[in-house]
Amino acid sequence: MSLVDVTEPVRADELGRVHLIGMGGAGMSGIARVLLQRGVPVSGSDAKDSDLLRHLEELGATVHVGHAAEYVGGADSVVVSSAVRDDNPELAEARRRGLHVLPRAAALGTLLLDRMGVAVAGTHGKTTTTSMLTALLQYLGAEPGYVIGGTLVTTGLGADAGAGDVLVAEADESDGSFLMLSPKIAIVTNVEADHLDNYGGLEEIHANFAAFVDRVDDTLVVGIDDPGARKVAEVARERGKRVRTYGEAPEADYRVHGLSAEGFSTAFTLDAGGPDPVRCTVAVPGRHNVLNAAAAVAVADELGHDPEVAAEGLAAYTGTARRFEFKGEAGDVAVYDSYAHHPTEIAADLRAAHTALESRPEAGEAAPEKGNGARARVVAVFQPHLYSRTRIFATEFAEALALADEVVLLPIYAAREDPEPGVDSGLVARGIAHGRVHRPAERADAVRWAAELARPGDIVLTMGAGDVTELGPRIVEELRATRN
Fold first, then answer.
1. Is 128 annotated as a binding residue?
2. What is the pTM of this model?
3. Looking at domain 323-483, which of 3.90.190.20, 3.30.230.10, 3.40.50.2300, 3.40.50.620 is its CATH number?
4. Which residues form the Mur ligase N-terminal catalytic domain (predicted)?
């Protein structure tokens, strides 16, 4: 991959009939769903059949499995997933006919043009923050539209047109495609080095976020605790943008303090500028999720909602698929799944898991008994994602994973990359200080080892952006088969 060429979005009524290449992906299917709900004629194709495709067919889309030039049919515009190669026959046909070809992000930008668009950007926390804000606005009766890079547990959907004025969208900085969005309000959670297969370094990432500032019409809501996001705030102020900040820093406009954990819920106090502080509770663990929740309440306030009532809406957030998602429990071992694939994300989730264990109501009594006198532990099952990311961050991955009590380390998930000589998960394994690392060659072995390593009272956390997510239910099954 590389940074995409910026294509300006057009109004939805100028698209005509729309054909989506790669329509079965999470992002593309969400856009297709919203277009269909808005009455736009939609067709699309994907290499494999899926439930998402069948759902879109039920909504009225013409669906094709596989790729062929004739599938473009009578389309006026063609939307292309970033995973689609230049030699795709449908893309070639669209170009031959001179059709309007838009990348996925430009189509998302189209959806924002005639709405009160809120874009959520940042290296980490985008999906969770977008989901929290959506759930909160639903609670407030705002009926928001949303396009999320995950699935809301409450609705089972990753996108919906909504009936209200607001549309909340996750903004992807990984390839620069967020520069095709022009939101009224934007959240910037944090800015760190990542996606260095696309970017030349952190300086280029900062330059792209600075360019994103220029795309925001009204207000930036920025996580002031993060040094990278703080720089974005400074740039925004220099350029005359309205900036509101959130975080634990004393100068934050929405200041977080008084964090307390009880199991997998976290409570905190938010000073939102009113006469009284607002007490909030969110049903996920970790300081990073508290900050995500604070950003959601801040945007609700900026949209004109009472922060205290908005904070009540946090209770409506019950989770997002792959974001510390509960997969099941057996043998008194709980299994969760996380999309964490960057060292910062891994460390945050592992710390959150330990905090959740230590703050459970029974932690001081029953938990040690369950572990034969030992404390409850965290077993991490991690699949590195991309050869380049593994090579660049091998030391940081090792330091983060050392926070787990036991580590099951899978081979690298290649995704869009070809293997690199000398780059494998051993680069990470060798740096994990406590040495309790297990490297199965087969996925079946990873399932068996995770189940064997876990003691009663422990948490098993599958982590990574690849297909490691499939292992959580299998670990639960293995625990049931061996512990009962």
1. yes
2. 0.86
3. 3.90.190.20
4. 18-112
